[in-house]
Prior knowledge:
Helix content is 0%, strand content 13%. It is an all-beta fold. It has a domain at 3-44. It is rod-shaped.
Amino acid sequence: CNIPTDLNGGKKGAMLYVKSKSYDLVVLGTKAFAYAPKMPYKECEKPPVYYYKSPPPPTPTYYYKSPPPPPHTYLYKSPPPPPVYHYKSPPPPPYYYKSPPPPVKATSPSYYYKSPP
């Protein structure tokens, strides 16, 4: 992994620029460049990038739904009971009081007292 590639002028020499400068220090910067082998070998192999795969979401919980109620059934309504019959006896015939006839004055012979002889 020590052979330069041609990325950003890596083979010819990278273009440098001054990043910061002070009295006793100069910091240079450049664009990124890369190194690679002519023939791939174990030392330069990198494991593939690991991508996290989240577990699948949990299955939704099953809620039991009862079947719909049956359609409206016909409810038989019996007729109302007949009215209660109260027997009314016929009124008694009118009563007429017949008083006895007044006594007939019999013209009976008057009673005369006869003294003994």
